Amino acid sequence: MPLDRYDRHILDLLQRNGRLTNQELAESIGLSPSPCLRRVRALEEDGLIIGYRAMLNAKKLGLTLMALVHISMDRHTPERFVNFEAKITALPEVLECLLITGQDADYQLKVVVRDMDAYQELLLEKITRIEGVSGVHSSFVLRKVMDSTGLPV
Where does the record place the HTH asnC-type domain (predicted)? Predict the structure, then answer.
């Protein structure tokens, strides 16, 4: 679907604030509410907008430790990867799981937990017990310099 300037503006504004009303959105982009709503629905139907969610404050929830975890697998078989991915996606502490290349690791995880004790439990009782995990390297986040979920449109 080719995007025009209105579509791009809609996407940009909704990434910044998914709670904008159709009226507010229409006023911001210079369209009347009906065509604006039609465009938003078309963007949703075409899969460009895949959802809306609330962003939560991890620290206020007591989740003060974030780590980037590199995982190495013992074998590079589809079955190993499917099993690992199924197990890792079931862990609520895992915010992101990326299959990577160019490193000594096969996966990079972004995890968030209460504290170091909770991290140790996650690592030793859950992650390293997944069949095929042969190595783990953890880096702890000292400070978020930038945090964005918005894509350049």
Answer: 3-64
Report yes or no on whether pTM surpasses 0.85.
yes
Task: State yes or no: pLDDT of 1 exceeds 80.
Answer: no
**Counted domains in the chain:** 2
pLDDT tens-digit readout, 43-69: 999 999 999 999 999 999 999 999 999
- Provide the CATH number for the domain around residue 18: 1.10.10.10
For residue 110, give its domain range: 59-140
Which residues, including other chains, have CB under 8 Å from residue 70's CB and lie 6 or more apart? 100, 103, 104, 105, 107, 108, 109, 135, 136, 137, 138, 139
